[in-house]
Design goal:
There is one protein chain. By secondary structure, the chain is α+β, with helices and mostly antiparallel strands. Among the domains are: about 460-555, Arc Repressor Mutant, subunit A; about 570-620, GidA associated domain, C-terminal subdomain (DNA polymerase, domain 1), CATH 1.10.150. The strands form 5 sheets. Strands 1, 2, 6, 7, 8, 9 and 20 form a 7-stranded mixed β-sheet that branches. A 6-stranded antiparallel β-sheet has the order 14-15-16-17-13-18, with no helix packed on it. It has a 4-stranded antiparallel β-sheet with strand order 11-10-19-12, with no helix packed on it. α1 (about 15-25) packs parallel to α9, α2 (about 55-65) runs parallel beside α9 (about 375-395) and α2 (about 55-65) packs parallel to α11 (about 440-455). The relative contact order is 0.12.
């Protein structure tokens, strides 16, 4: 098979690969997406859900940047919930259950409609180099395909090994072959590779579950969704359910511990601490008599259910026996057992913030190959790798989002400056500026930037401008409108808030925690007709305006702190500098600075073990 050379080859069509291919193609690069199975694009190999705590913010940022994860999630969701609504808006996080098969099909449909993007079903077994420059890829069918850049998004497939009890066999996912050759070749040219582990639970036949014994968990009445530009919203939803383990279940699972590859040392890779297997939870939290489980449907038209919280690599018969002792699952049948999978990853300190590798020009890594876990974390890396590979081909500066701009910036900076010793997952606690990085304002932070790059299209940019204009109009109106005691005091009494004895600006009243913007609008006659609270865009604008007014002082303070951080980010450090020559730095600091090669003083300050005193030494050395 003869191929014309491509600008960019994307290896793997998981969440990272799909976003990378779409972004690069939309920026005008000629892209080839190579995957083992074209039927499984953006496959939801673990739980059938998108978003969640901090992850929902990432999906909204991807959407604001012109990516497709939010659009696909909205079109294929079967349930929506906004998490953490009882907390402040910095913590609100959208999450949806998705139809697993529709999700992959919709991604393929979108990609097939994308200009400049070709597809090839094959397995990449190696890379082509021209010195320290990438030249293309080699495939299992003997093909050599040339390109100016390559983005590796191999997921769990690099030397993947599946474990079920004492049974283990090669595989990237259950039923899919592993990929061999790439790790070995990259190690030969100087890359460091390590092993990580993740797992997944049994899949259950919903016809055999007694839902009357479970606790129903319905979706929100109001479906907000992820995409700022997607008008579609579901009219019906499927429920999730809550179940619980018991001491009897734990005793049954313990019978299999001696066969557990995690406990007997056969699994060498480190697993995700925040998402442990059920056997790990029983061992670590031995004082607990019960653990909560979430029973999640995998689609509209399937009886398959995912048992969130019951991930396991114990023998299949142990999993089955324990499952049937959970209330509601006495007669359960399973489609397949849970399993653990070990795979290769490359410590991300070997990357620039553009996600290009330091050793090979034009070679980019995105997704689990960098030590992350989760669809959303992978997707945003793919998006950034696709953008930066395209920018490099145009001889333009890479796009590096900062920690004050996006959760995406936090994630990539954490990977490069701190590395990983377990699968990395995003949490709100990882971001220092959560009030700035809310899920509601991702478009305000990123859409103009993506429009300038040519990723976000004209219709998306116009929608953003329209929304921003309405938000500013609402804020201006509230600032200029005075409310009289006779208009508002009855509401204030009902809300147990102090009454007023003279006219007061509406914006000032909104600062009271007991009052909402809707309360004030309802109390002021002229504004009842102005704002249609059933219109989706107006509702979004009202919410964002309310947040910006209520939290204005907090937002301003975070902007000040963010500006101080950004000043450090602007101080460049010399490339390939030997820090051992600065004797006033501690030996540990010199070692770490030489290993990580931070590009700015800000990045250096976030490396574990680098003290404020070390940063002062570097600043003096740079003449600052």
């Amino acid at each position: 098979m003869y191929f014309e050379p491509y600008d960019i080859i994307v290896v793997g069509a998981g969440h990272a690969g799909c976003e990378a291919a779409a972004a690069a193609a939309n920026m005008g690069s000629r892209v080839l997406l190579v995957t083992m199975d074209l039927r499984l694009m953006a496959s939801m190999s673990c739980n059938p859900a998108m978003g969640g705590i901090a992850k929902g913010q990432i999906v909204r940022e991807i959407d604001a940047m012109g990516g497709y994860s939010g659009i696909v999630s909205d079109r294929t969701m079967i349930q929506f919930r906004m998490l953490n609504k009882s907390k402040g808006p910095a913590m609100w996080s959208p999450r949806c259950q998705s139809d697993k098969m529709m999700f992959s099909a919709e991604w393929r449909h979108i990609l097939e409609q994308t200009p400049n993007l070709d597809f090839w079903q094959d397995t990449v077994t190696g890379l082509l180099f021209n010195g320290d420059q990438i030249k293309g890829v080699k495939t299992i069918m003997g093909g050599e395909i040339e390109s100016k850049a390559v983005i590796l998004t191999n997921g769990t497939f690099l030397n993947g090994l599946i474990h079920i009890g004492e049974l283990h066999f090669a595989g990237g996912r259950m039923g899919e072959v592993a990929s061999h050759g790439i790790t070995e070749q990259l190690k030969e040219v100087g890359f460091e590779a390590k092993r990580l582990k993740t797992g997944t639970p049994v899949r259950i036949d919903g016809r055999t579950i007694d839902f009357s014994k479970l606790i129903e968990q319905k979706g929100d009445d109001e479906v907000v969704g992820f995409s700022y530009n997607e008008p579609f919203r579901i009219q019906r939803q499927r429920s999730c359910w809550i179940a619980h383990t018991s001491l009897k279940v734990h005793e049954t699972l313990r019978k299999g511990f001696k066969y557990s590859p995690m406990f007997n040392g056969r699994i060498q890779g480190v697993g995700p601490r925040y998402c442990p297997s059920i056997e790990d939870k029983i061992e670590r939290f031995s004082d607990k008599d019960s653990h909560q489980l979430f029973v999640e449907p995998e689609g509209w038209d399937t009886v398959e259910y995912y048992l969130n919280g019951f991930s396991s690599s114990l023998p299949d018969y142990i999993q089955y026996e324990a499952l049937r002792q959970i209330e509601g699952f006495e007669n359960a049948k399973i489609f397949r057992p849970g399993y653990a999978i070990e795979y290769d990853y490359f410590p991300p300190e070997q990357l620039h913030h553009s996600l290009e590798t330091r050793l090979i020009h034009g070679l980019y890594f995105a997704g689990q190959i960098n030590g992350t876990t989760g669809y959303e974390e992978a997707a945003c890396q793919g998006l950034m790798a696709g953008i930066n590979a395209s920018l490099q081909l145009k001889d333009e500066k890479p796009l590096v989002l900062t920690r004050t701009q996006a959760y995406i910036g936090v994630l990539i900076d954490d990977l490069i400056t701190k590395g990983v010793d377990e699968p990395y997952r995003m949490f709100t606690s990882r971001a220092e500026y959560r009030i700035l990085l809310r899920q509601d304002n991702a478009d305000a932070r990123l859409t103009e930037l993506s429009y300038q790059l040519g990723i976000a299209k004209e219709d998306r940019y116009k929608h953003y401008q329209e929304k921003r204009n309405i938000v500013e109009e609402i804020k201006k109106t509230l600032d200029e409108t005075s409310v009289y005691p006779e208009e508002i005091n009855s509401l204030l009494i009902a809300k147990e808030s102090a009454t007023i004895d003279q006219k007061t600006r509406a914006a000032q009243l909104l600062l009271r925690p007991q009052l909402t913007l809707n309360d004030i609008i309802e109390a002021i006659e002229p504004h009842k007709q102005r704002y249609d609270k059933n219109d989706r865009l107006t509702k979004e604008c009202l919410e964002e305006a309310e947040i910006e007014i209520k939290y204005e002082s907090y937002i301003s303070k975070e902007y000040e702190l963010a500006e101080k951080l950004n000043r450090l980010e602007k101080v460049k450090l010399p490339e390939n500098f030997d820090y051992h020559t600065i004797k006033s730095l501690s030996y540990e600091s010199r070692e770490k600075l030489n290993k990580y090669k931070p590009e700015t003083l800000g990045q250096a300050s976030r490396i574990s073990g680098i003290s404020p005193a070390d940063i002062n030494v570097l600043a003096i050395f740079l003449g600052r």
